[in-house]
């Protein structure tokens, strides 16, 4: 289905809070101004405004697909130059499957639903579809904006190509071999890490990194768990909202058919359920945006941070090995010079990495804190707003016999 | 019509009549004013073909002013039972003991307690006004509580005993406050007795809570988990509602079986209520037979009121069922939400612990606390969903089934009347034939049979009219009660929903400053 969608300029859909400087840094501004959903792909329109000399024009506009983003991310993470940087996690693949399935099932003509119920369910599902759409656009945009904000990454050549090249990038999605390769690389990586830290007894000299490592390991696991649980809560809210539909419809029809004395009561109750339905739906989507998305993002980001730590550890191991090699060479007095050179290289690399990693991790922390702060505040404010709208006593006063709830 | 009743001969006619009560005989009796009268006291007013007493001051029934809107419908003037009539002995036997419900001959409605037991003579001494006064003061001043479920016994023979406490100022009870221990089958036994006595003459007898083999087995086996405590609580609440509904019914309140159930410390075990007992199987067979009969009876409904009501209850039944199913789904999902929220709260707390920035860590712990409180809210709301709303709907679905049953009985009554007419016609034709064939002895027999069937036809008509009258009144009362019930419940439920939202506001308002404090 074709659905051109205007991207609202709203900030609410961004999962991680980028500091305001990002949006207003005139040297490089990136945004996704439009998105179109076709059968099984989403096409993003990426607009760039830049005063940097690299670009041929101050304003650019290209169309990119999800695979292009993934390609860009992979070029960064496979680039050794950026080993000391937390690579912004790639946006997740747009997944409309579940929503599309539900809409299809609805459309197939479930005869047990009344027309009213059908209309309401359709409304719910369409809203859901729209929400997923907005989210995926936001995720992709955040990815690009982080790249644009990073002093080192923004100068990457591939990044420019991504932003400027007005033809289709024709990035082939990873074929099976490459995927499998990637899968194996991950296994090797974790085995390697275990080896480095465990068996060889590599001593971490720097307290800062020791602390960070312990912290990140636990944090990542916890965030992942909380994210899962938050998802479940959100789904429960959604199913509650769906439950309210047949109830409010049934109450409504009872209200019209019942004896006079009961009509108002039933109709009032039906109205309340309708309001509650909308409330539950909004609560679900707000929790999704402010909580679930936040947690998901930091799950991925903390993984990226962990990867950084691994790379540094790897570099440290290399450095140690180089040291050992140098010692051996000196002992045998053979090929001392190359060993020295190699050792110097490793040392430099390691120190560079460490310095960069320290900076990155500090940034990560402050990013995390401000993101959580912003989102938690917004979550609380939204929850308050919703609860106030639906629970006002004023709305229920006219019901005969009801005591006005204590205000 | 009622005025045409002729007092049948006393004596022999009596005994056999008792047995015929099973067939939906008329509980309608005329009033007593014969208290002071003859010592050779006559039959219980309920006996079908008889006039209440030959000593009756004439058929008062003709002066009945039936008023659909009045809540206290039936006066129980006692028809006194002579203490020497042998059939009075098995008062509390499983046989249907017809209650006496005469209709007031005057505009004054005087519900009175009624007893066929030995306290009966007391009534003789009271003057009418006294009785009326006392009755008026007492109306519906009775409160029933079912509490303290207690497991008695062990293993598969175990059962739950419930304490039934009655608080009342009604004088028909011996004390003002008393309590007894009853088990579930006792309640079923009570309902079975009341149903046998009253259903077929048009009274809407509140149905008892349903059996549940699964639930009960869990309790018996001794599983002390939350689902069996929930089950017991659900049952306790249902039993309480059942009793409260039953005593609200003015006629049923007078019933001695009900009184015995509430008062006496020992109750004969009701074995007929077991599903697999002989009586249980008989019940199932009867039910099936009834269903078949219902399909074959085509009634000429001359009274639009009944047709309307039938339709109305049919509609209501359908809609309530639908709503009930939806609400049950709601209860289930809300419980899920509560469980998920609790899990999330724990997880958020752990996340807060692992977070090394102090302010954020505190905020996350606060979030976890808020979510825990919200989980509590969800649980309470689910509780309300269920006990306030869902159970009410379930109760009314069963009550409407009872109403439909009563309407069906009316149909059966009509059918009986029609059948009697047909038989009478046949007998008349047979007599005519015999007359031509000139067989004098057979002729006499035929004439007797005709007389017999004429009476039956008249009785059938009377019965039908009586049941129609009773049903009208009952339905009026039922609707009133229903409106009251629904209104109360809806208001209560609305309030619970609003309460929840307001609590949510409080919780989030408390959390907001914590979130803002993250530096």
TrEMBL record, chain A:
<dbReference type="InterPro" id="IPR015404">
    <property type="entry name" value="Vps5_C"/>
</dbReference>
<comment type="function">
    <text>Involved in several stages of intracellular trafficking.</text>
</comment>
<dbReference type="GO" id="GO:0015031">
    <property type="term" value="P:protein transport"/>
</dbReference>
<dbReference type="GO" id="GO:0005886">
    <property type="term" value="C:plasma membrane"/>
</dbReference>
<dbReference type="InterPro" id="IPR001683">
    <property type="entry name" value="PX_dom"/>
</dbReference>
<keyword id="KW-0813">Transport</keyword>
<dbReference type="GO" id="GO:1990138">
    <property type="term" value="P:neuron projection extension"/>
</dbReference>
<dbReference type="GO" id="GO:0005770">
    <property type="term" value="C:late endosome"/>
</dbReference>
<dbReference type="InterPro" id="IPR014637">
    <property type="entry name" value="SNX5/SNX6/SNX32"/>
</dbReference>
<dbReference type="GO" id="GO:0055037">
    <property type="term" value="C:recycling endosome"/>
</dbReference>
<keyword id="KW-0653">Protein transport</keyword>
<dbReference type="GO" id="GO:0032510">
    <property type="term" value="P:endosome to lysosome transport via multivesicular body sorting pathway"/>
</dbReference>
<dbReference type="InterPro" id="IPR027267">
    <property type="entry name" value="AH/BAR_dom_sf"/>
</dbReference>
<dbReference type="InterPro" id="IPR036871">
    <property type="entry name" value="PX_dom_sf"/>
</dbReference>
<comment type="similarity">
    <text>Belongs to the sorting nexin family.</text>
</comment>
<dbReference type="Pfam" id="PF00787">
    <property type="entry name" value="PX"/>
</dbReference>
<feature type="domain" description="PX">
    <location>
        <begin position="22"/>
        <end position="169"/>
    </location>
</feature>
<dbReference type="GO" id="GO:0005769">
    <property type="term" value="C:early endosome"/>
</dbReference>
<feature type="region of interest" description="Disordered">
    <location>
        <begin position="1"/>
        <end position="22"/>
    </location>
</feature>
<dbReference type="GO" id="GO:0042147">
    <property type="term" value="P:retrograde transport, endosome to Golgi"/>
</dbReference>
<dbReference type="GO" id="GO:0005802">
    <property type="term" value="C:trans-Golgi network"/>
</dbReference>
<dbReference type="Pfam" id="PF09325">
    <property type="entry name" value="Vps5"/>
</dbReference>
UniProtKB/TrEMBL annotation, chain B:
<feature type="coiled-coil region">
    <location>
        <begin position="436"/>
        <end position="470"/>
    </location>
</feature>
<dbReference type="GO" id="GO:0030027">
    <property type="term" value="C:lamellipodium"/>
</dbReference>
<protein>
    <recommendedName>
        <fullName>Sorting nexin-2</fullName>
    </recommendedName>
</protein>
<keyword id="KW-0175">Coiled coil</keyword>
<keyword id="KW-0597">Phosphoprotein</keyword>
<keyword id="KW-0472">Membrane</keyword>
<feature type="region of interest" description="Disordered">
    <location>
        <begin position="1"/>
        <end position="105"/>
    </location>
</feature>
<dbReference type="GO" id="GO:0035091">
    <property type="term" value="F:phosphatidylinositol binding"/>
</dbReference>
<dbReference type="GO" id="GO:0031901">
    <property type="term" value="C:early endosome membrane"/>
</dbReference>
<keyword id="KW-0653">Protein transport</keyword>
<dbReference type="GO" id="GO:0030904">
    <property type="term" value="C:retromer complex"/>
</dbReference>
<dbReference type="InterPro" id="IPR015404">
    <property type="entry name" value="Vps5_C"/>
</dbReference>
<dbReference type="InterPro" id="IPR005329">
    <property type="entry name" value="Sorting_nexin_N"/>
</dbReference>
<feature type="compositionally biased region" description="Low complexity">
    <location>
        <begin position="27"/>
        <end position="50"/>
    </location>
</feature>
<comment type="function">
    <text>Involved in several stages of intracellular trafficking. Interacts with membranes containing phosphatidylinositol 3-phosphate (PtdIns(3P)) or phosphatidylinositol 3,5-bisphosphate (PtdIns(3,5)P2). Acts in part as component of the retromer membrane-deforming SNX-BAR subcomplex. The SNX-BAR retromer mediates retrograde transport of cargo proteins from endosomes to the trans-Golgi network (TGN) and is involved in endosome-to-plasma membrane transport for cargo protein recycling.</text>
</comment>
<dbReference type="GO" id="GO:0006886">
    <property type="term" value="P:intracellular protein transport"/>
</dbReference>
<keyword id="KW-0967">Endosome</keyword>
<dbReference type="InterPro" id="IPR037918">
    <property type="entry name" value="SNX2_PX"/>
</dbReference>
<dbReference type="Pfam" id="PF00787">
    <property type="entry name" value="PX"/>
</dbReference>
<keyword id="KW-0007">Acetylation</keyword>
<keyword id="KW-0966">Cell projection</keyword>
<dbReference type="Pfam" id="PF09325">
    <property type="entry name" value="Vps5"/>
</dbReference>
């Amino acid at each position: 289905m074709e659905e051109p969608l205007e991207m609202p300029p709203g900030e609410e859909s961004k999962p991680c809070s980028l500091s305001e400087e990002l949006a207003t840094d005139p040297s490089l501004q990136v945004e996704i101004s439009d998105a179109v959903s076709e059968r099984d792909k989403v096409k993003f329109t990426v607009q760039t405004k830049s005063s940097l000399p690299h670009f041929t024009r101050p304003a650019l506009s290209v169309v990119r697909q999800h695979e292009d983003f993934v390609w860009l991310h992979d070029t960064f993470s496979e680039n050794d130059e950026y080993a000391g940087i937390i690579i912004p996690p790639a946006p997740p693949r747009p997944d409309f499957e579940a929503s599309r399935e539900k809409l299809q099932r609805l459309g197939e003509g479930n005869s047990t639903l009344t027309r009213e119920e059908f209309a309401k369910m359709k409304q719910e599902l369409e809203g859901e579809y729209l929400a997923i759409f907005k989210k995926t656009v936001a995720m992709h945009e955040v990815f690009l904006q982080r790249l644009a904000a990073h002093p080192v990454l923004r100068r990457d050549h591939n990044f420019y190509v991504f932003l400027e090249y007005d033809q289709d990038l024709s990035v082939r999605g990873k074929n099976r071999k490459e995927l499998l390769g990637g899968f194996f690389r991950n296994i090797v990586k974790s085995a390697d890490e275990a080896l480095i830290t465990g068996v060889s007894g590599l001593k971490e000299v720097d307290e800062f990194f020791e602390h960070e490592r312990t912290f990140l390991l636990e944090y990542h696991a916890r965030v992942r768990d909380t994210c899962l649980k938050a998802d479940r809560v959100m789904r429960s809210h959604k199913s509650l909202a769906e439950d309210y539909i047949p109830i409010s419809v049934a109450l409504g029809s009872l209200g019209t058919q019942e004896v006079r004395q009961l009509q108002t009561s039933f109709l009032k109750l039906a109205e309340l359920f309708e309001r509650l339905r909308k409330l539950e739906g909004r609560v679900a989507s707000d929790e999704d945006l402010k909580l679930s998305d936040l947690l998901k993002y930091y799950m991925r980001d903390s993984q990226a941070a962990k990867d950084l730590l691994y790379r540094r550890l790897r570099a440290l191991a290399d450095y140690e090995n180089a040291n050992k090699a140098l010692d051996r060479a000196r002992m045998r007095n053979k090929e001392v010079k190359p060993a020295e050179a190699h050792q110097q290289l490793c040392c430099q690399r390691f120190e560079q990495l460490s310095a960069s990693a320290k900076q990155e991790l500090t940034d990560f922390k402050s990013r995390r804190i401000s993101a959580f702060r912003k989102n938690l505040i917004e979550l609380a404010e939204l929850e308050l707003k919703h609860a106030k709208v639906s629970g006002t006593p004023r709305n229920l006063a006219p019901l005969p016999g009801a005591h006005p709830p204590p205000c | 019509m009622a005025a045409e009743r002729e007092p049948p001969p006393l004596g022999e006619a009596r005994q056999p009549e008792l047995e015929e009560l099973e067939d939906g005989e008329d509980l309608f009796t005329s009033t007593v004013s014969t208290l002071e009268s003859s010592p050779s006291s006559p039959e219980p007013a309920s006996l079908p073909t008889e006039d209440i007493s030959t000593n009756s001051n004439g058929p008062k029934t003709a002066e009945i002013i039936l008023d659909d809107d009045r809540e206290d419908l039936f006066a129980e003037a006692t028809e006194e039972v002579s203490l020497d009539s042998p059939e009075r002995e098995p008062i509390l036997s499983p046989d249907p003991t017809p209650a006496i419900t005469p209709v007031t001959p005057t505009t004054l409605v005087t519900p009175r307690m009624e007893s066929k037991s030995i306290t009966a003579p007391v009534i003789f001494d009271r003057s009418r006004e006294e009785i009326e006064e006392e009755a008026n003061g007492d109306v519906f001043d009775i409160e029933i509580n079912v509490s303290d479920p207690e497991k008695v016994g062990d293993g598969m023979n175990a059962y739950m005993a419930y304490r039934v406490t009655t608080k009342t100022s009604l004088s028909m009870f011996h004390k003002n406050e008393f309590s007894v221990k009853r088990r579930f089958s006792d309640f079923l036994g009570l309902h079975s007795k009341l149903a046998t006595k009253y259903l077929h003459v048009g009274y809407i007898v509140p149905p008892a809570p349903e059996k549940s083999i699964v639930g009960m087995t869990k309790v018996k086996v001794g599983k002390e988990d939350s689902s069996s405590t929930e089950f017991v609580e659900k049952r306790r609440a249902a039993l309480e509602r059942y009793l409260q509904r039953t005593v609200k019914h003015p006629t049923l309140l007078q019933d001695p079986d009900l009184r015995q159930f509430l008062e006496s410390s020992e109750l004969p075990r009701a074995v007929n209520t077991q599903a697999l007992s002989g009586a249980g199987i008989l019940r199932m067979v009867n039910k099936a037979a009834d269903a078949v009969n219902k399909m074959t009876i085509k009634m000429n409904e001359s009274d639009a009121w009944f047709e309307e009501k039938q339709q109305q209850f049919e509609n209501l039944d359908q809609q309530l069922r639908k709503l009930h199913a939806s609400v049950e789904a709601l209860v289930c999902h809300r419980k899920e939400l509560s469980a998920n929220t609790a899990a999330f709260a724990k997880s958020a707390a752990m996340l807060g612990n692992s977070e090394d920035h102090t302010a954020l860590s505190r905020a996350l712990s606060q979030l976890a606390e808020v979510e825990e409180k919200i989980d509590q809210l969800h649980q309470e709301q689910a509780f309300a969903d269920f006990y306030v709303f869902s159970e009410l709907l379930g109760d009314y679905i069963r009550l409407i089934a009872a109403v439909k049953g009563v309407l069906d009985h009316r149909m059966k009554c009509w059918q009986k009347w029609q059948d009697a007419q047909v038989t009478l016609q046949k007998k008349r034709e047979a007599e005519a034939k015999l007359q031509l064939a000139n067989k004098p002895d057979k002729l006499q027999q035929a004439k007797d049979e005709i007389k017999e069937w004429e009476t039956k036809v008249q009785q059938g008509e009377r019965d039908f009219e009586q049941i129609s009258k009773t049903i009208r009144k009952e339905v009026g009362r039922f609707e009133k009660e229903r409106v009251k019930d629904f209104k109360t419940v809806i208001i209560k439920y609305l309030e619970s929903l609003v309460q929840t939202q307001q609590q949510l506001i409080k919780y989030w308002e408390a959390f907001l400053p914590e979130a803002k404090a993250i530096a």
